[in-house]
From TrEMBL:
Name of protein: Acetyltransferase
PROSITE patterns (UniProt xref): GNAT
Top-level division of the source organism's lineage: Bacteria
Organism in which the protein naturally occurs: Kitasatospora griseola (Streptomyces griseolosporeus)
UniProt keywords, alphabetically: Transferase
Stretches that traverse the bilayer: none
Transferase found in the keyword field: yes
N-acetyltransferase domain ranges (all copies): 12-179
Coiled-coil residues: none
MF GO annotations: acyltransferase activity, transferring groups other than amino-acyl groups
Gene3D superfamilies: 3.40.630.30
Length: 181
């Protein structure tokens, strides 16, 4: 079992998942606005399953999709983290990701959490590159990648076979190397 790592930023704590996160995690995944670019909503059971999978992965590997909470007051906001790109995607490597409850949008939390995640990926995991795979039309998420200094690679656009058929399958790829991070 890996030693579990917490990450802190001025306003946020990236930590292991707790059972008490489930209510807001399920609410977030059942919100059509949050899931707008995923093509489906998650049931509470599906959210519970993903929470458990993320918890196990963090415990075993020491890194993955961290739960994000406010340091001040402890409110659970969503997740940010790193994960190997799905095998079915035509690009390889480790991707960064972020997903927040709607009440946490518009405060810079996603970018702040992701900065800590990228630092961890480059400094502690010595990754040669970190990717972000984002639905083409997901302007807020693309803006996060751009604020992080990631570069859009138009040659890597693809249709994500793991998503339900439809326009949200079109996916764009952002890349970042440590020297630029
Ligand atoms: C993607 C997502 C996390 C982006 O959220 P976001 O709130 O737009 O991004 P940030 O947390 O970085 O916040 C940036 C905004 O906060 C504002 N802000 C307010 N206070 C701030 C502060 N103290 N510091 C920095 N930014 C601040 C910024 O000006 C910016 O607003 P703008 O977009 O109007 O310019 C959110 O839209 C989301 O969860 N979407 C659903 C899930 C999803 O699509 N995930 C990505 C899959 S690839």
């Amino acid at each position: 079992m890996a030693e579990f790592v917490e990450l802190t930023t001025p306003r946020l704590l990236l930590r292991q998942w707790k059972d008490g996160d489930l209510d807001r995690w399920a609410e977030l995944n059942a919100d059509p606005e949050v899931r707008r670019h995923f093509g489906s909503l998650l049931t509470r059971a599906e959210s519970a399953g993903s929470l458990e999978a993320f918890r196990t992965e963090l415990a075993e590997r020491g890194w993955g999709w961290w739960a994000v909470q406010l340091r001040d007051g402890g409110r659970f906001l969503g997740f940010a983290g790193l994960d190997p790109v799905d095998e079915e995607a035509p690009v390889e490597g480790v991707e960064a990701g972020w997903r927040l409850h709607r009440d946490a949008w518009g405060h810079g939390y996603a970018t702040e959490a992701a900065r800590a995640v990228l630092r961890y990926g480059f400094q502690e995991l010595a990754l040669p590159e970190i990717l972000a795979l984002i639905a083409e039309g997901n302007t807020p998420s693309r803006a996060v990648a751009e604020r992080l200094g990631m570069t859009y690679d138009p040659s890597a656009d693809f249709d994500d076979p793991t998503l339900p058929p439809g326009p949200h399958r079109r996916t764009v790829v952002y890349r970042l190397r440590p020297s630029a991070g």
